[in-house]
Structure formats: structure tokens, C-alpha cells
């Protein structure tokens, strides 16, 4: 579904952000993208979503394809129409608008009223609180509820591929667990997901495949279970805690048993 080939990105004339990144996302998968601050995770999502130019970034080599079509030269609206929709870091809901108005804004691109109705029903099924608070101003919601609204707004476009940028950021652990469950539900309903996360335990629990970016390069790639078992991932992203690592690995392997096409762990060296 999504193919990123030898992607090289820079900001302005001199700041290189990505150096030859390669990855693939199948139509039936969740890909977790891990890495520390400045690793290039958000730049990757900006390139896929077409918003890179808004941040004075440019693709200097490589390309991004979605469903066989090159998209890194398209504007964001065209990419959304193709079925790629993003949820930015920090939620960015329309604070002065109601919950329902936020959802309507997300559904503007729907082709028919029936499609908008079906999308809204899906959102309300995933997030009942949004139906309960339809008339409330979005800015008065809790952080977790705003994240649910941001995801729900994106789902109003009925995406084929959902891009999530740090959905757990600033949320309580209980809410983070719920966000992870929701991502699984969205995937089970037939939407592929690219999940950028610093919370590696949650990300590897949710994903079936994962990549690790380091200073704009792909450092590791493989199944979520294999990365959970990697000494490097345990040390750098799971805190070196055996219990956390074992939990992430067990849950990732349990999810992987339900999926086909398991591939081995690969390492890229700059």
C-alpha cells in the first residue's frame, strides 16, 4: 500500500533530516516508527502527508508511493482524497468549535451524505464520549478526549491509511492503554496505520511491524515481536527493564500469531 524508497529530506538549504529511509506498509498492517527526538519521525509523516513544504522542507531524493501512485509531489488535499489522513502531534483540535463541528470539518471531503453518516457512526462507536459531548466546545475536553476527537476527525474522511503522530503524548497511562486499544480496533476495521511513538511499549504492543529511526536513518526494521526482543530496543526504548520488554514482546508475538507474512529483523548501518 505505502512504499517509501531511499527518502532523503532536508529543511532549508542545509539541514538534512532523512537520509535514504526505506519502508513499506501493507494494507492490513500497523507499522510503528520509533526513535528519539530529532530522529526524523515527524519529518517522515510530513513527507507522506504532503505537509513537508509547509515546514520549509523538501524531498531531495527518493520517493513515496501510495497504492502505486507517487504522492510526495502532491498537495495535502490530493493525498487526503487518495485515502491518506494524518493526526498531528499535539492533537490540534478546533478549540472554539464544538465536538460535532470538529467532526463535520473532518468529513468535508466525504463524497456523499451517506458516507458522512456512516463515518460518524463509526466514530461514535469507537468514541461514545464524542456522541455524549457533541455540543461541547472541543477546548473544554480533557487531553485524552481531545486525542479521541482528533482521531475521530481524521476517521471522518474514511481513510485507507491513518498517520498518527505521538498520540500518547502527555496522556495518563490508563488513557494511553485505551488509545492503543482504539488503534487496534481501527486496524481490525480495515484501516492501515503508521504509528509514530516514543512510547515503545505501547507502540510495539499495537503494531505488527516496526522501524527504528536514528538521526534520519533506518537503524532497525522487522516484526514488532522481533524488535521487542532486540537488545538495542530493550536498552534504548524499553528502559532496559526486563518486565517491560518481556511484556511488549509477549503481546507483540501474540498479535503476530494472528497475522501472516512475518519477516525477520534487519539492520541498516550508515
UniProtKB/TrEMBL annotation:
SMART domains named in the record: AAA (SM00382)
Organism superkingdom: Bacteria
Annotated ABC transporter domain residues: 2-240
Keyword Transport: yes
A molecular function (GO) term: ATP hydrolysis activity
UniProt family annotation: Belongs to the ABC transporter superfamily.
The keyword Signal appears for this protein: no
Residues spanning the signal sequence: none
Keywords: Amino-acid transport, ATP-binding, Nucleotide-binding, Transport
GO BP term, example: L-amino acid transport
UniProt name for this protein: Amino acid/amide ABC transporter ATP-binding protein 2, HAAT family
Amino acid at each position: 500500500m505505502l512504499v517509501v524508497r531511499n527518502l532523503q529530506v532536508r529543511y532549508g538549504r542545509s539541514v538534512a533530516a532523512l537520509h535514504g529511509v526505506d519502508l513499506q506498509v501493507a494494507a492490513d498492517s500497523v507499522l510503528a516508527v520509533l526513535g528519539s527526538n530529532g530522529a526524523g519521525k515527524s519529518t517522515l509523516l510530513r513527507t507522506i502527508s504532503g505537509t513537508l513544504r509547509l515546514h520549509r522542507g523538501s524531498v531531495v531524493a527518493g520517493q513515496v508511493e501510495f497504492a502505486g501512485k507517487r504522492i510526495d509531489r502532491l498537495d495535502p488535499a490530493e493525498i487526503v482524497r487518495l485515502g491518506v489522513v494524518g493526526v498531528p502531534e499535539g492533537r490540534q483540535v478546533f478549540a472554539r468549535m464544538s465536538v460535532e463541528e470538529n467532526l463535520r470539518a473532518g468529513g468535508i471531503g466525504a463524497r456523499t451524505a451517506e458516507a458522512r453518516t456512516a463515518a460518524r457512526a463509526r466514530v461514535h462507536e469507537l468514541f461514545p464520549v464524542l456522541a455524549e459531548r457533541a455540543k461541547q466546545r472541543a477546548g473544554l475536553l480533557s487531553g485524552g478526549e481531545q486525542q479521541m476527537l482528533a482521531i475521530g476527525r481524521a476517521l471522518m474522511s474514511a481513510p485507507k491509511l491513518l498517520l498518527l503522530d505521538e498520540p500518547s503524548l502527555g496522556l495518563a497511562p490508563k488513557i494511553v492503554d485505551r488509545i492503543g486499544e482504539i488503534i487496534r480496533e481501527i486496524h481490525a476495521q480495515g484501516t492501515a496505520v503508521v504509528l509514530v511513538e516514543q512510547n515503545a511499549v505501547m507502540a510495539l504492543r499495537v503494531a505488527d511491524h516496526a522501524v527504528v529511526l536514528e538521526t534520519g536513518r533506518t537503524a532497525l526494521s522487522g516484526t514488532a515481536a522481533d524488535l521487542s526482543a532486540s537488545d538495542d530496543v530493550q536498552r534504548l526504548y524499553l528502559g532496559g527493564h526486563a518486565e517491560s520488554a518481556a511484556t511488549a514482546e509477549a503481546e507483540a508475538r501474540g498479535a503476530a500469531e494472528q497475522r501472516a507474512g512475518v519477516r525477520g529483523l534487519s539492520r541498516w548501518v550508515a
